[in-house]
Amino acid sequence: MAGLTMRARGALILTLAGAAAGVGGAWWWYHRPAAGEAGVPEPVPVATIVDLSPVQPLPRSVSLDANQVELGRRLFHDVRLSSDDTVSCASCHAVDQYGVDGRRVSLGVRGQAGAVNAPTVYNSGFNFRQFWDGRAATLEDQVGGPVENPVEMASHWPQVLAKLRADATLQELARRAYGRELDEAAVRSAIATFERGLITPDSPFDRYLRGELDALDGPAKQGWQRFRDLGCIACHQGVNLGGNMYATLGAMGDYFGGRVVSQADYGLYNQTGREADRYKFKVPSLRNVAETAPYFHDGRIGTLDEAVQLMAKLQLGLDLEAADRATLVAFLRSLTGTPRGGGS
C-alpha cells in the first residue's frame, strides 16, 4: 500500500474492511427486533439525516419497562452481588463518569486487579456482542461474567440470591416487574434492561446528523471528513461508531512487540482457538470517547491524541501530522452526548 495516495489507501481499506462490516451489518438486519418493540428505537427518517453514511445518530430515548429498569438500577448498584459485599456493577461502570472508572484496569474483591480495561456501559445495548473478546452474546449473558469471576465479584448465584431474597423491597420490585420472586433470570434481565436505558443522545455530531449544521465547528467537520477519507469509518460505524464487528489490533503494525503478552491480549482467539482470531477484539464504540480514557483493551493509552496517532499507524499504516490528529480529536470530542437513564 506504500505507493497509494492517501485517499486511494482509505478507499482500499474501506473496501476490504467493509466486507467484514457488511457481514455483521447483514446479520443484524436479518435478526434485528422490530422497531417499536421494548428497547428498540424507531428508525430516524432518512430525510432528517444530513450525511447518508454508515453512521446513524443515537436515538433520544428507548422504550423499556419502568419496573424492570428500577429493579435493575438497584441491582446494578448493589454490592451484595459480590462475595464480600464490596463491589457492584457501578464500581467499575460509574454512571456519573460516562460508565467507566478511569482506571487502566478495574479492581475487584480484595483489591484484585482485572485483566482488561472496563469498557463504558453507556450505549452498550447497541453493541453486537459484549466484552472485548465478544464472549457474551447479550447483556443478559454479560451480567453473569463479573458475578462468577474470581477476580471481580468472586460469587455464585446461590449466594447472591440468598442475600437479595432477604430484601423485601427488592422482592416486591421483582413481583411488579416479573410477576415472581427474584431468581437468576430476573436479576440478569433487570440489570440488562437498566443498562439498555443508559444512552447518551444529542451529541453535537448527532445534532449535525439530524440536520443542525452548526452543531459541529470547523475543526470537527474537518475531522469528520478526514475520519472518512482515511478509512477510520471502515471499523467505526453504525449507531455506536463501533461495537458491531471484530478487528485485529495491529493490522499494519505490531502493538504487542517488545512486551510480555498476556492471555487477555489474545482477544477473540480465547473463544475460538483460531489463529486468525489472535489479537482480534470487538471494535470499541467511539461514543463519549473523550470522557472514557484510558484507551484500548489494556488501558495503556492515556490521551486521545496518542490513541489517534497509534491507530493510524497500526491500522492504516500512516504517520499523521499533528494538524490531522487535531482535527480528528476535535471530531471525536463532538461524540460526547448527554447521559440518560442513570437515575439517582
What does the model show?
Its main location: periplasm. One of its GO terms (molecular function) is heme binding. It comes from Parasulfuritortus cantonensis. The protein has helices at 6-31, 66-76, 89-92, 139-148, 157-164, 168-178, 184-196, 204-209, 218-230, 269-272, 304-316, 322-333; strands spanning 246-248, 280-282. It is mostly helical and 344 residues long. It has 2 domains: 6-61 and 200-333, Cytochrome c-like domain (Cytochrome Bc1 Complex, Chain D, domain 2, Orthogonal Bundle), CATH 1.10.760; 66-196, Cytochrome c-like domain (Cytochrome Bc1 Complex, Chain D, domain 2, Orthogonal Bundle), CATH 1.10.760.10. Helix 2 packs across helix 7 (184-196), helix 4 (139-148) packs across helix 7 (184-196) and helix 11 (304-316) crosses helix 12. Residues 1-49 have low confidence and may be disordered.
